[in-house]
Amino acid sequence: FEKSNSPPPPPHPNIEIPETKANFFSLITCWWANDLMSLGYKRPLEKDDLYVLNEKRTAKILTDKFEVEWQNELQKITMGKKPSLLKALFRVLWFKFCLSGVCRVSSDVLIVIAPLVLMLMLNFVSESYFANIHNDVQPPAHIGYILIVILFIMKMSDSTLFAFSFFCGLETGVLSRTILITAIYRKALVLSGKARSLFTNGKITNLMSTDTTRIDY
User: pTM of the predicted model, to two decimals?
Assistant: First the structure.
């Protein structure tokens, strides 16, 4: 793990984040970030080393989509229903939200099943032990190897899916906060004089800097 004595590579120009073109394995293991991590190990990262954010994740694009969904929610007022901010956010970020949920549920299912596979392994070991003592026919050895491989794959998949679901959850929280901050800022620019008397600069700043952070949790 010693650092290489070779000169550090020069900063590369702005490149779009590889996550946008990564395959499923690279996404779920965050393999697409290896180049940046390797560069950061060799030398301190600079501004030009950071990837360019995908256009679909920019504040403008996300907030434009949110405002369309929010206007649809506001139309519920005419029908006597209460608009839902959560539903508007969900329709914008539904894919990441659902992906995080699917990965988390899959991880939990593997956690539940793992003890059952372990029980089969213990039964196999017990049967082999007593068969050896009593000179009986022992169960096929390949069954034990198969159970070991299955348990290994299950535990690796469990850890990977849980970490990826956590990553997707954090990403969804950050994008949600970005949308809310931008939406509040846009609204603050078009407030009427009467509305400004109710929403002071301090209150608006507090909404953007403090209240929006609660969306992460």
Answer: 0.80
